[in-house]
Each structure stands twice: as structure tokens, then as C-alpha cells.
Specification:
Pfam families: NMT1 (PF09084). It is found in: Periplasm. InterPro entries: SsuA/THI5. The longest helix is centred in the last third of the chain and has 20 residues. With 327 residues, the chain is α/β, with parallel strands linked by helices. 45% of the residues lie in helices and 17% in strands. It folds into two domains: 220 residues, Periplasmic binding protein-like II (D-Maltodextrin-Binding Protein, domain 2, 3-Layer(aba) Sandwich), CATH 3.40.190; 91 residues, D-Maltodextrin-Binding Protein, domain 2, CATH 3.40.190.10. The strands form two sheets. Strands 2-1-3-10-4 form a five-stranded mixed beta sheet, sandwiched between helices.
């Protein structure tokens, strides 16, 4: 599937989803002919660490699955899932909500990061001084954008009070803040350590606010779940082992993390592991309706039909219940 050039943001996700659904109707398959389960993720960020560990430590293989991880941009993950190019996707709640508004049948199976894993850093020393300043974000299809809006709301500002600047990727946002071409941005370790060393100020730890959100969640098509419940069950069992290893083996977890994000500074890796282990990763990655509300609110008015969605129908927690709770 080739996405339409220029189709970006939530509206682009919705448009691409419609195109992908058309391809599916024309015969695209939900399954790989060689038995490979293709799983996408959108960014090389620590949110994905339990998934990476489950794959690289061989936990999916232990469950009898041949899992292939692929990296897709945030606005491509949902269309690829709908068209059958991937069978499972790790992506944000905004992609789920905007895709569902376009008629896509995808369920959230688990929430890797159930809060916004961000810290708002700025070149001013208080949140009150951000009014009228430039605040960078990735794209309106990404969770970082919704996290930015949540941070603004928490400090008493509206989007119209600041100059929001789209920059395309987390790397671009971080580089822009370091070079001071923007005044603030929502980020997280290890990048936040660079900001501290550069003399920037953390004006809000958004993760500590515990605002419900699916920053990264595990999803699959409703039809695939129905046809292959055994695959989903085995996948979730492998993912649980990834979560367990992430918490119990800091040395291995930081090694995997460093390889993925291209970092060899142990202090930064240790701080990132500590931040995600203590503030972000859940004991049980159960998806809830409340975690999708922030995406629905932020997309309201820009994506047709999003306001009328029944968010509870987008969630299937049965596989998490079995793997993590023994139900």
C-alpha cells in the first residue's frame, strides 16, 4: 500500500484508512503466507521497550510465534494494519480513534504506556512565561501532540495562547529545542537529560499527573482477533515476559534500549529505564475507555464522526486479563 502524498495528521490517517479498507475489500489478506506475524511500531522510543525485549529475548518464539517487528511512521501504522500488511500494531490512541471514526474495525488489546510519558522542557523558568512562545510538536497524528495539548491544559494555557510548531519527528523536536529555534517541547528521557545539561527548565512532569492516555498501545483488527485468538493469546503471553524482564533485569533492558535508540551513555540509559519503570509502565497493561478520551477530545472538530464514537467498543481486554491476571 502506498499512502497518498501529503496525507498527514489525523485527517490523513482517516483518509489513508479509507483507502486501506478499500484494498482489504479487494482481497488483501489478514495473514502472512509464510507464517510470519508482522508487528509494527512507530518510533524508536522507550515506550516500546517491553515489545523489543519480548522479540529479542526470544519470548515470542517460546510461545510458538514467528514475529517480525517493523518500524512505520505514526500515520502509516493504522492503514497498514487495516490493509493486512501487518497483523498487530503498537501505536497511539489518536491513530485508533481517528481510524475508527473512518470506519476501521480495530481493537486496542493492551496499553504499553497508559499515561503521557513526557516532561515539558522550556528555555523559560516557569509555565506562566510560555504564553506567546513557540512550542514544538511532531504531527497531529502523534501522541506527542496530544501530550503537548494535555500539558498546556494542565498549566492553564490553551493552544491559541502559544505558537504550536509542527516538526515531523521526535528527533526534529528535540534538536529544535536544543538549538533554541523553539521555546519549549514535551519530551522524555534520555533526551530530557540533554536539556538539563543545556540549562533548560522542566516546567511540568506530565507523567506524574497520571492523565489517562494510550500513548502506545497494542492493537489488531477485529476480524484478525476473531480468526486467530490463539495467536493473540500467545503474543500477549510473550509480551508479559517482556514486561517482566524489563523490570527485573536493568542491565539487559538498558542494553536493548541503547541498541534501538542509538545511545551508549549508561547514565542516560539508566535514567530512562528508571523513569519508565517507576512512572510510566503499568503493572497490568489494561486498556480503558478513559485512556482514549484525550485523543477523542483533541481530534474533535477536525476528524468527522470522532465525537460520536463509543470508545468502549474499541477495547478488548480479555487477552491481557488472561496473560497478566490469569483470568
Amino acid at each position: 500500500m502506498k499512502l497518498k502524498p501529503g496525507a498527514t495528521g489525523a485527517a490523513g490517517v482517516a483518509l489513508a484508512t479509507v483507502l486501506a479498507m478499500s484494498l482489504t475489500a479487494c482481497g488483501s489478506s489478514d495473514t502472512s503466507s509464510d507464517g510470519v506475524i508482522t508487528v509494527s511500531y512507530s518510533e524508536e522510543v522507550a515506550d516500546e521497550l517491553p515489545l523489543w525485549i519480548a522479540s529479542e529475548a526470544g519470548y515470542f518464539k517460546e510461545e510458538g510465534l514467528n514475529v517480525k517487528l517493523v518500524s512505520l511512521a505514526s500515520d502509516q501504522g493504522y492503514p497498514a494494519l487495516i490493509s493486512g500488511q501487518t497483523q498487530i500494531a503498537s501505536m497511539g490512541g489518536s491513530q485508533i480513534v481517528s481510524g475508527a471514526a473512518a470506519g476501521g474495525d480495530v481493537k486496542v488489546l493492551a496499553t504499553m504506556t497508559p499515561v503521557f510519558p513526557y516532561q515539558l522542557y522550556a528555555n523559560v523558568d516557569s509555565a506562566a512565561k510560555l504564553k506567546g512562545k513557540k512550542i514544538g510538536y511532531t504531527s497531529k497524528s502523534g501522541s506527542q501532540y496530544i501530550g503537548t495539548l494535555a500539558a498546556l491544559k494542565k498549566i492553564g494555557l490553551s493552544p491559541s495562547d502559544v505558537n504550536l510548531v509542527p516538526l515531523g519527528s521526535v528527533t526534529n523536536v528535540n534538536n529544535a529545542l536544543l538549538s533554541k529555534t523553539i521555546d519549549a517541547a514535551a519530551t522524555h528521557p534520555p533526551a530530557s537529560l540533554q536539556f538539563e545539561d543545556a540549562g533548560l527548565h522542566m516546567v511540568l512532569d506530565i507523567a506524574q499527573q497520571k492523565i489517562p492516555n494510550i500513548n502506545v498501545g497494542i492493537s489488531s483488527k477485529g476480524s484478525y482477533i476473531k480468526a486467530h485468538p490463539d495467536v493473540i493469546e500467545k503474543f500477549m503471553a510473550g509480551l508479559k515476559k517482556g514486561f517482566d524482564r524489563e523490570r527485573s533485569d536493568q542491565k539487559y533492558a538498558t542494553k536493548v534500549l541503547g541498541a534501538h535508540i542509538g545511545l551508549d551513555k549508561q547514565r542516560a540509559l539508566d535514567e530512562t529505564w528508571k523513569y519508565y519503570s517507576t512512572e510510566v509502565f503499568p503493572a497490568v497493561p489494561e486498556a480503558t475507555k478513559a485512556q482514549l478520551v484525550s485523543a477523542q477530545e483533541s481530534l474533535g472538530g477536525s476528524v468527522h464522526g470522532v465525537d460520536k464514537l463509543d470508545l468502549s467498543k474499541l477495547i478488548d481486554s480479555s487477552f491481557v486479563d488472561k496473560a497478566f491476571k490469569g483470568k
